[in-house]
Amino acid sequence: MQDIISAKNIINQIPEKDRDKVESIELEVGEFSEIKAQELKKAIEDLVGWNVIINKINPKTKCECGYIGKINLKQKDKHLLVHHCPSCGSRHKYIIGEDIKVKNIVYF
């Protein structure tokens, strides 16, 4: 159900008068976004028939120690991510990798 809601949110970013002119849409989907990329792709294709190109984005982090880069994941399951800074070992937050963004739209 969340994939349909996200698909509709993306579709609604295009003015209604232009939606039938869209040939394809390119999305950036973070590895840690709440929606699975393939489910989102299928939902958009089913709702409006656009060709959907998915670019998966690997998560990156920024720590208080100054480290910016890849995440050092300690545990990953369906609902829990425990991550620590590879530089200092403290817990940190994502700066890239949770979002879904429209990268490009191609019109007929």
Number of individual domains: 1
CATH level-3 fold name: hypothetical protein PF0899 fold
What letter string, H or E per element, gives the SSE order?
HEHEEEEEEE
Query: What is the average of the pLDDT values?
Result: 86
* Name of the level-1 CATH class: Alpha Beta
Task: Provide the fold topology.
Blueprint: H1 2-11, E1 22-30, H2 37-48, E2 51-57, E3 60-62, E4 68-70, E5 72-76, E6 81-84, E7 93-96, E8 100-107
Parallel strand pairs: 1-2
Antiparallel strand pairs: 1-8, 3-4, 3-7, 5-6
Helix pairs in contact: 1-2
What does this structure look like?
The chain has two helices and eight strands; from the N terminus they run αβαβββββββ. The chain has one domain: hypothetical protein PF0899 fold, CATH 3.30.2320. Strands 2-1-8 form a three-stranded mixed β-sheet, covered by helices on one side. The model has no long low-confidence stretch (mean pLDDT 86). With 108 residues, the chain is α+β, with helices and mostly antiparallel strands. The radius of gyration is 17 Å and the shape is elongated. The protein starts with a helix and ends with a strand.
